[in-house]
Amino acid sequence: MGIVLLVLIIGVGGYYLWYQKQQMQEMTEMFALEKESLSDEYEQLSIQYEGYKFGVGNDSLIALLTTEQEKVQRLQEELRTVKSTNVRRINELKKELETLRKVMRNYVIQIDSLNAENQQLKDENRQVTQKYQQASSRAARLSKEKDQLSERVEMASRLDAVNIQVRPITSKGKNAKKIDKAAQLMMTFIISKNITAPVGEQIIYVRLMKPDDDVLTKPNSGRFQFEN
Questions:
Q1: Domain residues of the chain, as ranges?
Q2: Does the structure show a pLDDT above 80 at 15?
Q3: CA proximity to 186, closest of 177, 173, 202
Q4: How confident is the model over 30-57, as pLDDT tens digits?
Q5: Which stretches does DSSP call E strand in the chain?
Q6: Cβ-contact 42, 5 below 8 angstroms
Q7: What residues form DSSP beta bridges with 175?
Q8: pTM, whole model, 2 decimals?
Q9: How far is CA 60 from CA 56, 70, 114, in A?
Q10: What is the mean predicted confidence (pLDDT) over 61-68?
């Protein structure tokens, strides 16, 4: 009877030890999985910080995001070195992660606000640019119209001669009846009224042309440009 009781005690004790070992193994595996999951969450948070840094054009905010990202990476590195069975420290790192997420949410609000302001500034800048381009185009058009009007006024201010008469005269200023007696040619004409022409004395040049449209000139005489 005593032997049977001893065997039962040994059997129960062995089963208890085996059960305890199984429980410890399961808890160890659970702690390891929990640690791995927490490490993944830290990694995701670090990646989010990195992404927000690329989407922000504010240097001060980028510096703050970098500081928080470095803190995340530092705690993530600490998590790698903590044993899975160190439940107390792992729970502390969980709380740290929640705090870092709250900080991240605050930064997200700031980033969204800055992006909205930047978009508004871009829209305003685009409107100003469009108005400037329109004003420049209008100024260029007005300048071209002014040049065209100036050209028209210049053309309109030309003087027209009418009733043109040419007669040869002698050296004494009398009408030459024969061409060999002619010393000069006298031209008379009337200038038509033109209110666009400037008032005052005008210098008028006369060209004599042959029937073949060749201009008569004297050797070494002065020449000038003529505009039809």
A1: 22-158, 161-191
A2: no
A3: 173
A4: 667 777 888 888 888 888 888 877 777 6
A5: 161-169, 184-191
A6: no
A7: 169
A8: 0.41
A9: 10, 16, 12
A10: 83
